[in-house]
Amino acid sequence: MGRIGIPLERVPDEALLAGLMTGDPEIAVAFVRRFQRRVFGVAIAVVGDVQLAEDIAQQTFERACRHAQVYDPRRGSVPTWLAAIAHNLAIDAVRARKTTPVDPADLENMMETITDTPERHALSTETAVELRRAVGTLPREQARALVMAGIYGMTAQQVADFEEIPLGTAKTRIRTAMGKVRASLAARQVDHD
Amino acid sequence: MTDNSGFSCEQLREIGAELALGVLPAEDRAGVMDHLEHCPACREYVHELTATSDALLDLVPGSEPPVGFEDRVIDRLGLSSVRRPRRRVQWRRFALAAAAAAAGLALGGGGWVLGASVGRPAPVAPIVSPVQPHLLTAQLAHAGQSFGQVYLYTGSSPWLYMAVDADGHSGTVRCQLQRADGSIVKVGSFTLNDDGYGSWGGPYLAGTSPVTGVRLLNADGSLLASATFNQSYG
Ligand SMILES: [Zn+2]
Question: For chain A, what is the domain count?
Answer without folding.
Answer: 2
